[in-house]
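Z., the sequence and structure:
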Amino acid sequence: MKINIILAQLNLTVGDIEGNTEKIINSISDAELKHNADIIIFPELSISSYPPEDLLLRPAFNDYINIALDRIVKKTRNIHALLGYPTKHNDTLYNACSLIHNGEIKQTYYKQHLPNYGVFDEKRYFTAGNETCLFNIKGITATITICEDIWDQKPITYAASAGAKIMFNINASPYHKNKLVEREEMISKRAQNSNMHIVYANLVGGQDELVFDGNSMIVDNKGETIFHAPQFEEGLYSFELDLEKSNISKNIKAHQTEEENIYNALVLGVRDYVIKNNFKGALIGLSGGIDSALTLSIAVDALGAENVEVLLMPSRYTADMSNEDAYIQAEILGVKHETISIEQPFKSFLKVLEPRFNDLSTDTTEENIQARCRGTLLMAASNKCGKLVLTTGNKSEMAVGYATLYGDMAGGYAPLKDVWKTLVYRLATWRNTQGQVIPERVISRPPSAELRHDQVDQDSLPDYNILDAILEQYIEFDTSPKNIIKNGYDADTVYKLIQLVDKNEYKRRQAAPGVRITERGFGRDRRYPITSGYSENDK
């Protein structure tokens, strides 16, 4: 028995009920008329998109969802559609998926396993369902699950015991590195254990800090992936599933390298944040350093050179090679660029503050004033031109507070917020293999903030290979300082870095949102109090 399936891997916008509804209706029409499909499967919470967060608490929001659902139901005729949306039943809110056919809702399933960890807060909003949902399509018994349900064996076991041969699993599963491998291994195991074919449809696109990578797939009852939709690409993807014959693998591509995967996630996150929030483009302070160089490359790949602008803002401490490299990269990428020296505003600040700073030695205060001069110039230019300032700080800097509030932290979005400094170098090197856009000297020279004479980052921080290894263990894996030391790292260095991480939570709380690429990014994943007497920093 053959079933022509359409995976609607759509890029939707949270709260844009009207726009999402139009995209859903158009997809149903295309699936029926152009693809002659039997069934189309949409992502989790498609009408609202994911995650709608506290919009779900607004009565009017749920009323608009119901109006949109009614429109979609009326437009769904000969084709079957599996559609995810939030719904209220008896004043209880559910994460639902309905089977729609011939202008009617035939079946509705309520998500049973509500994730409440990391970036997920579903128990704040939804009540869990507890019933298996079965339906018949072309003589075949099928079942519905939603995202997290498939990570638990029980819903699959119940459906298989009831005779289901196909499981349709709708998702809004966000990206992090290694997620694709984890998903495929889990789905393969579920398919083999249940003897069911699994059709997995996932959301694609950026939503604030989250990026949804798509990667919709079909896995047969032997656990083999027989169809794979592209990663990070919106589209309607068709596959004819034959339950009586072996299916020929289709669109099964080798997994991308980690660097390519992450780079594409950053590009998608930046593109959707800028476009969905109606900015005219992006504005970047280009220093000649590797962080701003990689940020510019991402921005141009995301938005096009015509929509990106850079400011070169040298100071008395900026090396000639930094100015040269920044200019060269701006020319290579073809972006509008302008040089504005911060010397005059820096002198003015020092003059105004001279009575207060009298007899006090020069320290990081003067360095921070330079960074804040640059932040003020960028934000002023942003206000005038309508382009969003992209900050350029990386995860290593944000972890230890190696950034200036209202200075280099000033801006609306932080592409590298979840990217360790060592990964910044890997991504820059990978991007140059696709066509050189970053001058080689930017990658090879020692990193420096250039806020005083002959400054390099390693004056105040350990080598980034050591720094990132320690920080990753403490931040992403909750490893204690004592165990990090047991792993071979210098005790004084470990305790110094842990103290920096703990005391700089106040800075991170004020940082711009940025693309999440790990399982423990700053923001939604890692929620620590600013004011806290807790410490594991006891020697």
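The two ends are 68 Å apart (CA to CA). The chain has a mean pLDDT of 92.

Let me know what you think.
H.
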